[in-house]
């Protein structure tokens, strides 16, 4: 038996790192990073990332041995050396369980700061009061830098990355504010998050929670998080393809009792229907291209390679398109491109190849590195992706051919079993739906903008929940520090009072103070993030952004298939070109060519598209601000 695996040396700050961090701490005392000239802003972000890598990656297991050893679990099939395993095994070869399904979430703050609070602390102030006073949407506030596809995209990605399990037996009773008639019997109960078994004393104070998905960026929302599931989704399709159903001219995800058959199908709505369908079609199209180029490949080889390509394409789209769309700041445009192409940029990357390491040539093809802590997603990462205000109240639907306004549907009427209703009921096709998503706005991630639909949600499995209450409760129960403490642990200054937190908005500060009984330290992370002033061009808070600075590159850098094994041997020549030469617009146009006119003038596929024909005259709030 080999000793416990430790796949990478502890991340130590060198003298240059320390110098850089110190210099920028000095500069930031006077000027925040986002107000610096672009070049300095990018360097500032790099200084943040160095410090975060050194101080903000914390394992929640008692030892590295929990990640497995090079012999245990035993790799029975050498196939996993060159392709993804659906359970997430064997990505790190000497720690084969790292990042696999049912491994625990880690932490971005030391565990001594993540203790589970007492029942009283957990319910103070009542999460329902916070939801009613501070989260409930008063009027729809649109995010005008984005389109609705951007909202669907991030949920689509989150479903690849993270899902906690709820207890089947235990529930919290949520205190209701006076006069709050939640249900007839005036009772609100929410399932406890299922904690992992206790492995050591620390777990008694701060439980570990397992991920129901693989932690890797491996398309598990499409392919499933187990080999068994993947086999089911492929069925008996030849040439490495995923199963689809054809109805007339449209291709749909197959369904069982009305439920879509795909890797992750909970919290379903039309946005997910669109993106799951699109990337299943993309997988099948990649299979065709590979089969043409490599006619002797088996169905297995075609599937494995197409999945690698499809996952890398999604990771690239997220890195160089979605993120710069929601963080529309010049330093971010450079920094996110640098994650993929390096600071030398795409042209030089293509000319010289990825030979100069992570900083100059980008993360793909650089050496995989876990920076001293086993790779996994974290509780704090899940917290900052609670972006439920992105969901609007209703969607305006248009013809992709003429731009004519057809009909509006409330979100409720395109959610769960209704996800395809506008197609079956109103004769709209996928092209119309994509076009409509391209010109509808999502909600802005801000206070009092969580839709009623999610705050009074009835799910197909019989739950009746207020997602605003749940968003607050979950962070508290999982020991995620409240806003000010979170900022300290992410090396930021805490807000000194309510007025400072809101950037001088007196009415909001008073409302916050009333809910939190004058104690700024009690403000929940999600609430603080939704009311702090944003850097110019940002779609969410600078505080949440600190988690992104660290984890966006970590998801790429820790993954052997994106880092060390990024080469033609793994992906094939066709595969490398497929990923490197294409983006979201190419994917959309390949499958839905009628979107051409709307996408023609659009800069970023996740920003509002060009309105065509008579949709320009529509004045509804869904697409006009
Ligand atoms: C119609 C749209 C949506 C529905 C119906 C929905 C529903 C839900 C539900 C029921 C939960 C689980 C609550 C629990 O802990 O018991 C949840 C969690 C979550 N949702 Fe949403 N959601 C939607 C959109 C979104 C969007 C756009 C995002 C943006 C990224 C998002 C991010 C999350 C995250 C991060 C969690 C926590 C997952 C975890 O605890 O592991 N959701 N959502």
Record keyword descriptors for this entry.
625 residues; mainly alpha; Myeloperoxidase, subunit C; two-stranded antiparallel sheet; two-stranded antiparallel ribbon; 27 helices; 10 strands; globular; binds protoporphyrin IX containing FE
Q: Percentage of helical residues?
A: 40-55%
Number of domains: 1
* The named CATH superfamily: Haem peroxidase domain superfamily, animal type
What CATH calls the topology is: Myeloperoxidase, subunit C
Radius of gyration, in Å, reads 24 Å
The CATH class: Mainly Alpha
How far the N terminus sits from the C terminus, by CA atoms, comes to: 64 Å
Strand order of the largest sheet: 1-2
Which percent range describes the beta-strand content? 5-15%
| Ligand inventory | protoporphyrin IX containing FE
Number of strands: 10
What is the average of the pLDDT values? 95
Low-confidence spans: pLDDT under 50, at least 5 residues? Answer: none
Overall SS class: mainly alpha
Counted by DSSP, the helix tally is 27
Second-tier CATH architecture: Orthogonal Bundle
Coarse shape: globular
| Major β-sheet annotation | 2 strands, antiparallel
Keywords: Dioxygenase, Fatty acid biosynthesis, Fatty acid metabolism, Heme, Iron, Lipid biosynthesis, Lipid metabolism, Metal-binding, Oxidoreductase, Oxylipin biosynthesis, Peroxidase, Plant defense
GO biological process, one term: fatty acid biosynthetic process
Cofactor: Ca(2+)
Pfam families: An_peroxidase (PF03098)
């Amino acid at each position: 038996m080999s000793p416990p695996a430790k796949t990478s040396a502890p991340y130590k700050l060198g003298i240059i790192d320390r110098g850089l961090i110190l210099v920028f701490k000095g500069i930031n005392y006077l000027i925040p990073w986002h107000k610096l000239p672009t070049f300095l802003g990018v360097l500032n972000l790099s200084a943040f990332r160095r410090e975060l890598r050194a101080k903000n990656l914390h394992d929640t297991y008692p030892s590295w041995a929990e990640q497995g050893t090079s012999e245990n679990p035993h790799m029975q099939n050498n196939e996993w050396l060159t392709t993804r395993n659906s359970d997430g095994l064997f990505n790190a070869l000497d720690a084969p369980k790292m990042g696999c399904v049912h491994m625990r979430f880690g932490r971005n703050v030391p565990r001594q700061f993540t203790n589970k609070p007492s029942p009283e602390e957990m319910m103070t102030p009542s999460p329902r009061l916070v939801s009613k006073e501070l989260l409930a949407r008063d009027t729809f506030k649109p995010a005008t830098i984005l389109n609705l596809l951007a909202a669907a995209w991030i949920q689509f990605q989150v479903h690849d990355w993270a899902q906690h399990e709820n207890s089947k037996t235990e529930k919290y009773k949520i205190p209701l504010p006076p006069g709050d008639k939640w249900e007839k019997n005036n009772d609100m109960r929410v399932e406890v998050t299922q904690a992992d078994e206790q492995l050591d004393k620390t777990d008694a104070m701060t439980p570990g929670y397992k991920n129901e998905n693989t932690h890797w960026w491996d398309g598990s929302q499409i392919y499933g998080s187990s080999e068994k599931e993947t086999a089911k989704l492929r069925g008996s399709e030849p040439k490495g393809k995923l199963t689809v159903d054809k109805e007339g001219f449209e291709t749909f995800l197959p369904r069982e009792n009305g439920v879509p058959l795909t890797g992750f199908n909970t919290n379903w709505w039309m946005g997910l229907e669109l993106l799951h369908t699109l990337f299943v079609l993309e997988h099948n199209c990649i299979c065709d291209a590979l089969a043409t180029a490599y006619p002797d490949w088996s169905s297995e080889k075609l599937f494995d390679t197409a999945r690698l390509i499809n996952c890398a394409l999604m990771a690239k789209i997220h890195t160089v398109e979605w993120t710069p769309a929601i963080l529309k700041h010049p330093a971010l445009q450079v920094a996110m491109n640098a994650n993929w192409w390096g600071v030398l940029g795409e042209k030089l990357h293509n000319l010289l190849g990825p030979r100069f390491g992570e900083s100059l040539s980008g993360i793909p093809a650089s050496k995989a590195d876990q920076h001293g802590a086993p790779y996994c997603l974290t509780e704090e990462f899940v917290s900052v992706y609670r972006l439920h205000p992105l969901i609007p109240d209703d969607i305006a639907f248009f013809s992709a051919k003429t731009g004519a306004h057809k009909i509006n549907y409330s979100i409720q009427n395109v959610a769960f079993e209704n996800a395809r209703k506008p197609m079956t009921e109103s004769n709209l096709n996928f092209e119309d739906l994509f076009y409509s998503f391209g010109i509808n706005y999502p909600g802005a991630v801000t206070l009092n903008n969580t839709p009623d639909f999610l705050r009074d949600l009835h799910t197909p499995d019989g739950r009746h929940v207020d997602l605003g209450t749940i968003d607050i409760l979950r962070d508290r129960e999982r020991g995620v520090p409240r806003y000010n403490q979170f900022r300290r642990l992410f090396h930021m200054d805490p807000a000194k009072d309510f007025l400072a937190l809101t950037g001088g908005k007196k009415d909001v500060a008073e409302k916050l103070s009333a809910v939190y009984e004058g104690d700024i330290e009690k403000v929940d992370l999600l609430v603080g993030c939704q009311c702090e002033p944003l850097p110019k061009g940002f779609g969410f808070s600078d505080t949440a952004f600190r988690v992104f600075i660290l984890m966006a590159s970590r998801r790429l850098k820790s993954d052997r298939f994106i880092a060390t094994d990024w080469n033609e041997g793994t992906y094939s020549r066709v595969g490398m070109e497929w990923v490197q030469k294409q983006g979201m617009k190419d994917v959309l146009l390949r499958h839905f060519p009628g979107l051409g006119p709307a996408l023609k003038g659009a800069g970023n596929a996740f920003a509002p598209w060009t309105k065509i024909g008579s949709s320009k005259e529509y004045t509804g709030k869904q697409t006009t601000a």
